[in-house]
Amino acid sequence: MLPSPAVRHRRLPARASFAAALLPLLLLILGALCVVACGGPETITPVARPPARGEMPDEATFLAELDRSRGHRDSFDVIRDPEFVSADAAHGLVADEMVLGLDLGTAQAAYPINLLNFHENVEHTLAGIDLLVCW
Amino acid sequence: MVHSRTLDGRSLRFGHRGWLWKNAYINYDLETDSLWHHQTGWAMAGPLRGKALARFPTVLTTWATWRAEHPLTLVLPKPRNDPRPSDRDVYAERNAALVFGLGVDLPGAFRLYRFADLAAAGGIVQETVDDIPLVVGADPEGRTAFAFDRRVDDAVIDFDLDATDDTVPLLRERGGARAWSLRSGRPVGSPGTDARLRPLQSAHWETYAWERQHPTGTRWMRDSARESVPTRGR
């Protein structure tokens, strides 16, 4: 049975349907290109700097020089995968308090030193990067 | 300092070993129990010895300064019910008796700029180390410093430190119209460029600990005859 004329007019031709479906993707690509061309937030790339000759003792010397008297395994409880908050929601921070600041370009994080003093290490993921914060 | 935990395609997990090596804490990884220097990110012992975690540049600054530069920043929250006093620096008294500086890590060199030396030099030092033209600027607040590569758009820039507004200290291009924020390296009202200054890997160090950790490092010292002379430290 043929559809009524009203129904026939609501149906787009196949090529137009395809274009309509593709339009959001094209807009997204165009937007991304604009961000790149206009200088969107650059991503900071970490740099590995392995030890050069003479910069690290041999393993036996290192182990002999370790001071094992000041603590034990897990003396400090590492903060793992904490929930970060916005600047407005951060309580207990005062203006002249020191923070360790990390700028990845696409995301930034601040770690209060007064808190790091008790934990030394923080592990979390920011902007898809698995991080180890050491103090 | 902040390291990437991804090494050779896998993400490691770390614990604090509680041991010290020349005043630096040592971590261990849960996967291999190798021992890692917490600042350099070098594996010092164990199956991963010789490996290095990639590091991100970081800064140590006041909360007000950081927030002004990065209003969208996330923050590691302080616990509300922790009996430990996170409202103050428990090491402030100890640190007041120590001498601190900014240690800059370059691919082929380690260099220390003591804060007192930076202040005596007018707050800014420019030199070339390891073939990298760099600038180190002291924050007018006096508690930190920042290090950048001086190359912008393939040219080496000479800077002056402009701290007339200490809420927005700038590195101004000498003989030009461009300026960059000392605290972030981002261009500030700079016509003709949106290029950010590349931050160099750096960290706050107590001077004696830095010298122990960096036997091949050198400390910047102001020479009476020249503006700056690279000189080996103790």
Write the layout of secondary structure elements.
The complex is a heterodimer of chains A (about 140) and B (about 230).
Chain A: H1 5-10, H2 14-37, E1 47-48, H3 59-65, E2 79-80, E3 85-86, E4 98-103, E5 108-112, H4 113-119, E6 121-126, E7 129-134
Parallel strand pairs in A: 2-6
Antiparallel strand pairs in A: 4-5, 6-7
Chain B: E1 2-4, E2 6-7, E3 10-11, E4 14-21, E5 24-29, E6 35-37, E7 43-45, E8 54-56, E9 58-62, H1 63-69, E10 74-75, H2 92-96, E11 100-106, E12 109-114, H3 115-120, E13 124-129, E14 132-138, E15 145-149, E16 151-152, E17 155-156, E18 159-162, E19 170-173, E20 179-181, E21 202-206, H4 207-213, E22 218-221, E23 229-232
Parallel strand pairs in B: 12-22
Antiparallel strand pairs in B: 1-8, 2-3, 4-5, 5-6, 6-7, 11-12, 11-21, 13-14, 14-15, 16-17, 18-19, 19-20, 22-23
Task: Quickly describe the structure.
With 135 residues, chain A is an alpha+beta fold. Chain A has helices spanning 5-10, 14-37, 59-65, 113-119, and strands spanning 47-48, 79-80, 85-86, 98-103, 108-112, 121-126, 129-134. The interface between A and B is large, with 73 and 78 residues.
Features:
heterodimer, A: 135 residues, alpha+beta, three-stranded mixed beta sheet, two-stranded antiparallel sheet, 7 strands, extended, disordered N terminus, B: 234 residues, mainly beta, Rieske Iron-sulfur Protein, five-stranded mixed beta sheet, four-stranded antiparallel beta sheet, 23 strands
